[in-house]
């Protein structure tokens, strides 16, 4: 009877969770040793999936109903693995762009899948005409074009873009940046990230301080908080590359004085609004600027223990795991919120799934610290088990977790004695990372017109939170996963190793729960 009752309870819990999403597709894909996974959807609802495994290119095309239209497994004869830099959807095909290098020569190597039939096409490689002393920064694609970005010793930017007539042919423009130099050379270029519509909206992606956006025939590069030569304060820099004219435009927001070497502000561009977040231990400031004029149009300021009124969800922290405790926590006390948000690089992302509201992810991300068995003496180490002979026989005294500084370094660094200690956070670990990063964030739902906090009779739903909760319930955590935009929905694809299938779950914005309404007298 107890087993039957437990089964009914589990069935009910599963049914409740299943209502939060639905399965879009379930296809057989041999992804046991996949090395790359890329997915892209078009406006008609077709989905193309690519992954590379064991020297073969694998492509699959799904219909808007989730049915498999075509599947290809194509031998790849080159020694180098294809490096997919970006995707684009043309009138007829899904285009996957890869970069191939042979010594000093570099080539653009695209792959194409027909949007209706799923037929595979491999256009001719094109050698990229590079100047001397050029460095590759990255590649990215939007709905209209694919770009490749390089820089040279004079810090000029070399931009390559495919043509309207031929997706495999690149045109070239050189842009003189004319920006102030940073104290550390190539500091801006070292952490560039392209903001695509399929970007996961979490603090890890939002904490990057060098972002690239594309609008029509212009490329916007926005840099936050870099130390500039001859400048005392840091600022937000906006560099515009106009493809049609070949000219650049450099603008800045008001400067902010940063305390110490840790960045305290970051920004995110959404349509015609630029949002900048400034976080310190006793202050949080969110300012929205008109991107054309750079004039502030809305500002929120909070200090000390003041409640953050624009919060639509509690402040959550993930990754800050102590020994034998969960890596997820909800911070409720206002006195701890500011300090927790300031413990990392500020991060902000903005997204929308309807015309009336904007969804902001506000917080910070602290990267995992590097492990070093010779320097990190505060890491936890488990001592070996000991066996003691007593009157009742041989008994084991289990080892205990203790800081590394309590153990003589002779034992931990010895090739012989170190094997008796369980040292997962530092043993032989020079240059690696200790544990995951720490994400601290909350969601804010603002009105799209006046940027005030949105009011609704329904419980506001954040699709990224739905995906996070769904992923947390998957045991074990999937090794291969992808998230992409599907109209006003989000698709989460992952490889189910137990069933040996690739599942795509669909999360919709209209899956809302009514708030508890007070009874009318």
UniProtKB/TrEMBL annotation:
Is Signal one of the keywords UniProt gives this record? yes
Q: Which UniProt keywords apply?
A: Signal
Output the superkingdom of the source species. Answer: Bacteria
Leader sequence range is 1-20
Question: What name appears for this protein in its UniProt entry?
Answer: DKNYY family protein
């Amino acid at each position: 009877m107890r087993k039957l009752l437990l089964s009914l309870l589990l069935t009910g819990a599963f049914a409740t969770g299943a209502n939060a999403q639905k399965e879009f597709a379930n296809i057989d894909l041999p992804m046991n040793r996949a090395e790359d996974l890329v997915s892209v959807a078009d406006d008609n609802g077709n989905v193309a999936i690519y992954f590379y495994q064991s020297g073969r290119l694998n492509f699959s095309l799904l219909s808007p109903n989730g049915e498999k239209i075509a599947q290809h497994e194509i031998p790849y004869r080159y020694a180098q693995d294809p490096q997919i830099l970006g995707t684009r959807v043309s009138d007829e095909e899904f285009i996957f762009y890869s970069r191939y290098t042979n010594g000093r020569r570099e080539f653009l190597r695209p792959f194409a899948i027909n949007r209706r039939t799923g037929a595979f096409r491999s256009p001719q490689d094109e050698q990229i005409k590079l100047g001397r002393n050029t460095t590759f920064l990255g590649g990215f694609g939007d709905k209209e074009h694919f770009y490749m970005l390089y820089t040279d010793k004079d810090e000029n930017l070399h931009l390559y873009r495919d043509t309207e007539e031929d997706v495999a042919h690149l045109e070239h423009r050189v842009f003189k940046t004319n920006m102030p130099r940073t104290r550390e050379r190539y500091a801006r270029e070292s952490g560039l990230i392209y903001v695509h519509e399929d970007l996961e909206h979490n603090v890890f992606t939002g904490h990057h301080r060098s972002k690239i956006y594309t609008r029509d025939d212009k490329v916007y590069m926005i840099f936050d908080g870099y130390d500039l030569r001859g400048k005392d304060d840091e600022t937000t820099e906006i560099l515009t590359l106009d493809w049609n004219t070949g000219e650049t435009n450099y603008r800045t927001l008001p400067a902010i004085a940063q305390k110490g070497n840790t960045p305290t502000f970051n920004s995110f561009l959404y349509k015609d609004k630029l949002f900048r977040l400034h976080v310190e231990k006793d202050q949080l400031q969110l300012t929205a600027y008109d991107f054309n004029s750079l004039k502030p149009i809305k500002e929120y300021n909070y200090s000390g223990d003041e409640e953050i009124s624009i919060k639509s969800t509690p402040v959550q922290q993930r990754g800050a795991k102590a020994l034998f405790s969960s890596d997820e926590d909800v911070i409720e006390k206002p006195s701890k919120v500011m300090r927790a948000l300031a413990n990392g690089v500020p991060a902000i992302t903005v997204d929308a799934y309807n015309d009336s509201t904007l969804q902001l992810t506000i917080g910070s991300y602290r990267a995992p610290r590097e492990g070093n068995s010779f320097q990190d003496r505060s890491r936890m180490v488990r001592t070996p088990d000991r066996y003691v002979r007593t009157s009742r026989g041989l008994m084991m005294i289990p080892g205990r977790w203790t800081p590394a500084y309590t153990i003589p370094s002779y034992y931990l660094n010895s090739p012989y004695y170190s094997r008796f200690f369980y040292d997962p956070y530092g043993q032989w670990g020079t240059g690696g990372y200790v544990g995951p990063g720490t994400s601290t964030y909350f969601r804010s739902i603002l009105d799209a017109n006046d940027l005030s906090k949105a009011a609704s009779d329904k419980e506001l739903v954040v699709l990224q939170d739905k995906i996070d909760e769904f992923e947390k319930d998957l045991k074990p955590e999937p090794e291969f996963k992808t998230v992409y935009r599907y109209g006003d929905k989000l698709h989460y694809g992952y490889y189910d190793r137990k069933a040996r299938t690739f599942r795509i779950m669909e999360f919709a914005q209209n899956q809302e729960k009514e708030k508890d309404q007070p009874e009318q007298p």
